[in-house]
Design brief:
- With 69 residues, the chain is mainly α.
- The chain has one domain.
- Helices cover 59% and strands 0% of the residues.
Length: 69
């Protein structure tokens, strides 16, 4: 998934996240890689969260834990 580094790409990223299924969101979070941070969620934990929380977590990871271009 692309990192949002400006308003237009941020809007595309938000739209892509909003269209993801629970399974897609969970997989993205379980396999998320940032340069200095590793997210340490279990599948069981993520499956217990509401879909909106998963979207929020992925958006936060993409906008805060990945470098801007």
């Amino acid at each position: 998934m692309a990192t949002p580094n400006n308003v237009e790409s941020g809007e595309r990223t938000a739209a892509a996240i909003s269209e993801m299924s629970r399974e897609q969101l969970t997989d993205e979070l379980l396999h998320f890689e940032a340069k200095r941070v590793r997210l340490d969620f279990t599948r069981e934990y993520l499956e217990g969260l509401p879909v909106d929380a998963l979207r929020h977590l992925l958006w936060a990871a993409l906008t805060r834990l990945t470098p801007a271009a």
